[in-house]
Every structure is written in C-alpha cells, then in structure tokens.
Amino acid sequence: MTTGKCYCGAVTYEIEGDIDYIVHCHCRSCRRACGAAFYSAGFLRASQFSVTSGETQIREFTFPENPSGARCFCGTCGGRLYIRLPVPGLINVAINTLDQEPHEDVGVHINVESKAPWDEIPEGREQYTTIPPDMLTQLQALMHSD
Ligand SMILES: [Zn+2]
Ligand SMILES: [Zn+2]
C-alpha cells in the first residue's frame, strides 16, 4: 500500500496497487500552479485512490480551460495533492506527496517546449515537445486494467 500526505499532514491518502504511468509536465499552467519547474504526476484509476483523513480540508481549483477537471490541494497549507482529470475515472497524484518515493526518474517529460529557460532535462530521459502520441492510449489501457 502506498501512502501520501500534504505539507502540513492534514490530508492523507492511500493508493491501492501500482502507479504505472508517471509524467513530468513542463507546461506553463503546471509551472504556475506548482511554483516549480514542472509538475510530477502519477496517473491512476480513481478507484485506486482514497483520502484517509482531512477530506473536508481539500479545495479544488477548476481548470479555466476545462471545467470538468480540477487541481486539488490542501486548504490549510496549500500543498498540491492531485488532479481530478476531465476523463472520468482517472486522476493523477502529485508524486512528491508520496511517503514512498520512486528512487529514480521513471517518468516521461512532456510539454518540454514550454519548459523554463534555465531548466535542463538530463540526457537520456524520455521527453516530448508536447504530449506523447501514445499517451492517451496508455491512459485508456490504464483505466481498463484491473
Ligand atoms: Zn496541508
Ligand atoms: Zn501541465
């Protein structure tokens, strides 16, 4: 069982099973929303994810470009927790909030065309100027796997 929490610890969650698809998004929205060079997201089925404490602390910021998705964060510390995606049944969690962290960069760097001018992605990492062509297929496969 994988667990995680926000910065202040008011909101905790757990994940059943594995996170199979990790993305580092360098788009301008993720950079602004996170105040960081990129947002590292682990995609999973919403059914794998459950909030174990502090549910009432969670605030949502609806995507201005798509009202059926939202960035979800702790109302006390402001720590980003997860994104409720416009695709029903699928979410992504901020992998930096996990208690058990991946020890290496297993993610795909996306929207690299919008990355910060000073941000350098180490050589050999998988990267795409926008969205990888097979990303949707990968996510659909994830949603239908059990
Ligand atoms: Zn918090
Ligand atoms: Zn993004």
Description:
The protein has 146 residues and is mainly beta. The chain has one domain (2-143): Metal Binding Protein, Guanine Nucleotide Exchange Factor, Chain A (Beta Complex), CATH 2.170.150. Helices cover 11% and strands 36% of the residues. It has two helices and ten strands; from the N terminus they run βββαβββββββα. The protein has helices spanning 28-34, 135-143; strands spanning 2-5, 12-15, 21-25, 39-45, 49-53, 58-63, 66-74, 80-84, 90-94, 108-110. The strands form two sheets. It has a seven-stranded mixed β-sheet with strand order 6-7-8-9-4-3-10. A three-stranded antiparallel β-sheet has the order 1-2-5, with no helix packed on it. A hairpin with a 5-residue loop joins strand 8 (80-84) and strand 9. The radius of gyration is 15 Å and the shape is globular. The model has no long low-confidence stretch (mean pLDDT 94). The site of one zinc ion has 9 residues, from loops.
Per-chain topology:
Elements lengths: L1 E4 L6 E4 L5 E5 L2 H7 L4 E7 L3 E5 L4 E6 L2 E9 L5 E5 L5 E5 L13 E3 L24 H9 L3
Parallel strand pairs: 3-10
Antiparallel strand pairs: 1-2, 2-5, 3-4, 4-9, 6-7, 7-8, 8-9
Bound molecules: zinc ion (ZN) (2 copies).
